Amino acid sequence: MADITIEILHESLDPAAETGALAGRDASAGGLATFVGQVRDEPGLKALELEYYPGVTKQALQRIAQTAARRWMIARAVIKHRVGRMTLGEPIVFVAAAAAHRREALDAVGYMIDMLKTEAPFWKRVHTDTGAHWVEAVDADRDAADFWMEEIASEDA
Amino acid sequence: MADITIEILHESLDPAAETGALAGRDASAGGLATFVGQVRDEPGLKALELEYYPGVTKQALQRIAQTAARRWMIARAVIKHRVGRMTLGEPIVFVAAAAAHRREALDAVGYMIDMLKTEAPFWKRVHTDTGAHWVEAVDADRDAADFWMEEIASEDA
Amino acid sequence: MKLTVRYVAALRDRMGRAEADLDLPEGIADSEALIGHLRAAEPAAEALSHPSVRLILNDAIVPRPAPLSDGDTLAFCPPFTGG
Amino acid sequence: MKLTVRYVAALRDRMGRAEADLDLPEGIADSEALIGHLRAAEPAAEALSHPSVRLILNDAIVPRPAPLSDGDTLAFCPPFTGG
Prior knowledge:
The complex is a heterotetramer, with 2 copies of chain A and 2 copies of chain C.
Chain A: E1 3-9, H1 15-22, E2 31-38, E3 45-52, H2 57-71, E4 74-82, E5 84-86, E6 91-99, H3 102-119, E7 122-128, E8 131-134, H4 139-156
Parallel strand pairs in A: 1-4
Antiparallel strand pairs in A: 2-6, 3-5, 3-7, 4-6, 7-8
Chain C: E1 2-7, H1 10-15, E2 19-23, H2 31-41, E3 54-57, E4 60-62, E5 73-77
Parallel strand pairs in C: 1-5
Antiparallel strand pairs in C: 1-2, 3-4, 3-5
């Protein structure tokens, strides 16, 4: 079974340090895929605020990583997610998978980032010059998660 | 057009530093996908040696990144590839793409790593306790590159 | 039946509070019946009935309708927007 | 016609050298004719005819057969194994 690391971070997330900690770590893994989601510029952006649900969010991320580890041949899966207030360019989430084969690592990362967008309890709020608003769910994110859920259900069947 | 960085490195490649240099760099990019290919353990492995073709290899990588930037909406593409002698766990290649949308970044990275496996002039030699051998081409790598070449040809048509 | 309800993120703004302890009349067996009860008390609770609203019951994400028991904590959540 | 041929990686081992300057007779117009000529001189050159062998002509990766001109450098390459 893959080694799984899940963290909810209140302070800071350092994608360079996370990558450094994983590179070369698993002798059997020829490939390490990572994804960093970061605060993107938008008009008047001052900060992004992320709310979570203590006691539930981490468990939801754990389940996503476990499903990835069952579905793909990976040696290691990592999800680290910020909560609280972030500014432009700051990392929000770091997802990684190490695997013997590149396609497994890349697909596992793609799955995990797709799923955590809509299946882990996080809520984003954007603070701008003119006020604050909650970020609306994106249909495409919902579709991506639905795709995986159907795919995995049909494999388990 | 995307910002493209290609390097052939004779000494060392530091995935953590590369990731650090990219994280948060493109204000329009909500996502940064990376892939690190690294020396995998195999029986008796002492070192991996990588040969390239000066004057041609870098150009081939450049073309792969340019094709990725035409095919996917990415703000930045990076390919850094080691040559020379490497030991267990050492990074061989770092591929990255920054994009507004995660799927573009992930797919561009998947494309670039697939293509450079078979379309850039590199040759791997494994040194073990009992001697040295050239690494054979893998059919699955050939298939992956063929898939992309057909896919992109059909889109251009 | 005693129940704690939580309103999360945009629903907290909509409802004007984060949490409420309720003492419910007989016959409210699940989340949908609860929503009906809340709507009768305040129009803002209509937002809770939207199909995109997700539920966290105690410490688990659960599908709707969710059966309710005495002492439960039920959180009404807008769609998740992580990553 | 003068031509420089290079043998790369495993093909260098097979041919026992990295490079050779050739002075070719008339009528060798492309890579495949060159391979035939080399095979006649030494059996090891049969390896060059394998369909997996890639060509670099001067500073470009080119498909086979590659037309040849005086002064060209042609490299015979095993399949690429990067990444």
